[in-house]
Design brief:
The protein is mainly beta. The chain folds into 4 domains: 60 residues; 97 residues, no CATH class; 145 residues, Galactose-binding domain-like (Jelly Rolls), CATH 2.60.120; 109 residues, Galactose-binding domain-like (Jelly Rolls, Sandwich). A hairpin with a 6-residue loop joins strand 12 and strand 13. Helix 1 runs antiparallel to helix 3. The chain starts with a helix and ends with a helix.
């Protein structure tokens, strides 16, 4: 009995040690440092000088070949294959605050139907501050005068103007036209701001289309002049507002085009794969046929298995009027979803033949990195198994209080090179759980051994009781 008890204890101890070893081995992590070949692709970093900090815009190829939408599978390496600190920065937006609307004083320009704006004879009155108080034309032309434009007084504005919002009456149910906007500081020399901005107020097929906002690069000017083609009906303004910009100017957007594919068995639905997780700001839908006007809804999602999320509703149009092509304005969006769905109402005929195109605009992020170690440096990206490890450079930089701030110099990226290739973008196959199999096998053998020993112990007790009974009789 004592011998069997010792054997049982040793057996349990051995099973516990083997199981513990297998469990610990199953959870241990590889301590091997990350190397460039662990990533799919790389871009050489090119710069001049020997400064500590450099910065470059993230190119499209990085967005197309990273697995994580936050670019967490990106590293910067030096010539020794060591990871150096980096940080991704969003570029500054245009305004420090929300846009502000300011009413503008406007004066109609009257003239002969055949006369151009520069042929008009006008008289101008200003007050002591230079603000316009009256603009008059020739009295002889009053009987045959026709409204041919407006002059807007923006001399009192301190901020730049980035858009105009107009309101008008036409005496008709629908209106489609174009507007020319010019700027001047002396009312004599005019510069074109917008050559043919589309304006529209339409009702068609149960849809209402209103395009009364004209956007343009921010400018600071004293006066604006509005006009339209001579062969179109005059625009009778009832009010006009200037949208004032902030103190900073937007970085130009980068654009990428994707062609839609029709969804089978769902008329009016078109899917788009951008092929990248881009930090989107604007979407343009290019319709396949001229003179199209439809109501549409836009959806997006990050992965093919996700549910569609509403991105917005819009009236899409592509119209030809008075020699001008009119298109709907860009759609403002946010997020970095790769997959998009356009759903077009079919009661007005849909899009007809052909497929729509989607153009997406974004401001590339800025990659800042430290030049520790020897050159050349490179950006390596594309790894489906790696975790995000972006460094916050401000935590490493010395306090610049009382000293000049560290300069961030510009860098450029070279042509893409292949490291580990596309296989790094695919999720790795799960390893065989052989350690768990060993664990269960050891535990199963231990249980069977315990059962066998318990059976032997019961048999021995029975035999002992039987022999004791026989001896007493």
């Amino acid at each position: 009995m004592h011998k069997q008890s010792n054997t049982l204890s040793l057996t349990l101890l051995a099973a516990f040690i083997i199981a513990s070893y297998a469990f610990a081995s199953d959870h241990e992590k590889s301590a091997d440092p990350i190397q460039p070949h662990d990533f799919a692709y790389a871009l050489p970093l090119q710069f001049e000088g020997q400064d500590a900090l450099y910065q470059t815009s993230v190119p499209l190829s990085v967005y197309q070949n990273t697995v994580r939408s936050d670019l967490g599978d990106l590293r910067v390496f030096n010539a020794q294959g060591e990871v150096v600190p980096h940080m991704l920065q969003q570029p500054e937006r245009s305004s420090t605050s929300q846009p502000v609307l300011s009413k503008l004083v406007y004066f109609p320009l009257q003239g002969a139907a055949s006369a151009g704006l520069d042929q008009l004879s006008i008289r101008i009155k200003r007050n002591a501050t230079g603000t316009l108080i009256d603009i008059g034309g020739s009295a002889k032309l009053a009987s045959q005068a026709k409204l041919c434009g407006y002059i807007l007084d923006a001399s009192t504005l301190k901020q730049s103007i980035q858009a105009l919002e107009l309101d008008w009456t036409t005496g008709r149910e629908s209106f489609v036209g174009t507007l020319r906007i010019e700027s001047s500081d002396d009312l004599k020399h005019w510069n074109t701001v917008v050559g043919g901005a589309p304006l529209a107020s339409l009702q068609f097929g149960g849809h209402k289309l209103s395009q009364k906002r004209v956007e343009f690069p921010a400018l600071h000017t004293k006066y604006l002049r509005l006009s339209w083609p001579q062969d179109t009906a005059p625009l009778h303004l009832t009010g006009i507002n200037a949208e004032l910009a902030g103190s900073r100017i937007d970085t130009p957007l980068t654009w990428h085009t994707a062609t839609g594919s029709a969804v089978s068995d769902k008329p009016g639905e078109y899917q788009f794969d951008l092929g990248a997780h881009l930090p989107l700001q604007r979407v343009r839908i290019e319709l396949p046929q001229m003179n199209t006007l439809v109501q549409a809804t836009l959806f997006s999602r990050a992965l093919p298995q996700d549910t569609w999320q509403l991105a917005g509703n819009s009236v899409l149009y592509k119209l030809h009027h008075s020699g001008q092509d009119l298109k709907n304005p860009d759609i403002a969006v946010t997020g970095s979803h790769r997959y998009w769905l356009l759903r077009v109402e079919q009661k007005s005929g849909g899009l007809g033949t052909g497929l729509p195109e989607m153009q997406v605009g974004w401001q590339p992020q800025q990659l800042q990195f430290v030049t520790r170690g020897a050159a050349p440096f490179q950006i390596a990206y594309g790894n489906s198994a790696i975790k995000s490890a972006e460094f916050q450079l401000q935590n490493f930089l010395p306090d610049s209080e009382g000293r000049p701030a560290l300069k961030i110099s510009p860098a450029q990226t070279g042509a893409q090179i292949t490291l580990g290739g596309e296989s790094r973008l695919r999720p790795p196959l799960p390893p065989l759980p052989w350690k768990k199999w060993i664990l269960w096998l050891v535990l199963s053998v231990a249980v069977m051994l315990l059962g066998w020993m318990a059976y032997r112990l019961v048999k021995q007790l029975e035999n002992h009781d039987s022999s004791k009974t026989t001896g007493n009789s």
